[in-house]
Structures are given as C-alpha cells and as structure tokens.
Amino acid sequence: MKRKERTRILVNCSNEFLTQWAQYFEQQTQFHVIEEPKNALTMLRMRESAQHSLFYLGEVLVSETRVKCRDTIGIGLIQGNELEKSYALAVIDAACNAALDGVDQLEKALTQEKQKQDAAHARHVAGILKTRVNFETMDV
After folding, report:
1. CA distances from 73 to 17, 31, 87 (A)
2. Contact 64, 33 (CB under 8 A)
3. Cα(first)–Cα(last) distance of the chain, in Å?
4. Fewer CB within 10 Å, N side or C side of the chain?
5. Sheet holding 72-79, edge to edge
6. Quick one: which of 88, 63, 91, 66 has its CA closest to 77?
7. Packing angle, helices 83-97 and 103-130, rounded to 10
8. pTM (2 decimals)?
9. What confidence tier does 93 reach under pLDDT thresholds 50, 70, 90?
C-alpha cells in the first residue's frame, strides 16, 4: 500500500484504532520522540481556477509529531487539535517506513477500514443526492 493512501485511511480512522496499532508497534521496538506533539499553524494553499495561480486562503491549525525508529523517521500531521492522534500517526508511519513485523497485518486491517470508509462515504453521498433538485423537471 502506498504511503499517501495509507495516510488518507489512517487520518479518517478512529482514535481507538490508531492507538491500538501504535501500542502494538511500541511493544515491538523503542520509538524516540524527535518532536513532541504540538499544535502549529500552517498556510492553506489554493489554486485559482481561471488563471491557475496559487494563493494562500488562510491558516489552518494542525497537530504534528515526529518520532524515530531504527534510523527511520515517522511524521504525524493532522488538521485540528488532535495531539494523541498525531503521535499515533507518527508511530505507525515510522513502523511502516522501518518495515517492522506486523505491517502486513496493519495493511489488511487498513483494507477493511477502507471498505468501511468507502461505504460510509457512499451513504453520505446518496443522502445528499436525494435532496438534489432536477431543474429540467421544474419546467412547465
């Protein structure tokens, strides 16, 4: 599984799921905290649709953490004030980058979680589409 897809799934997981996997990897080896979980502001970059030029829309509060496992660095960065979640993300990222035992099991669990998230998203979109107005049928 690619890092971008894995991160997208993990960010949308529950805190319990992330904490469980972070503790699982912490039992296997020691993780050194390089940068404690902290809040920061980052600029939100957008692309203007007409001229395709970049501009900064504003600032976003993020939680970030960096950990090290066997010469491999893991980064946890998530929008909002979620320090525990950013730490768990960093531990899981470092574990995957270091190819620790259990990464295959994590990927299987992430595949199941992705199916749950996709189903929930499909239900959400279906609920929105129920309220959609078809303007062609309004013509009399």
Report:
1. 21, 10, 12
2. no
3. 53
4. C
5. 32-47, 54-69, 72-79
6. 63
7. 130
8. 0.82
9. very high
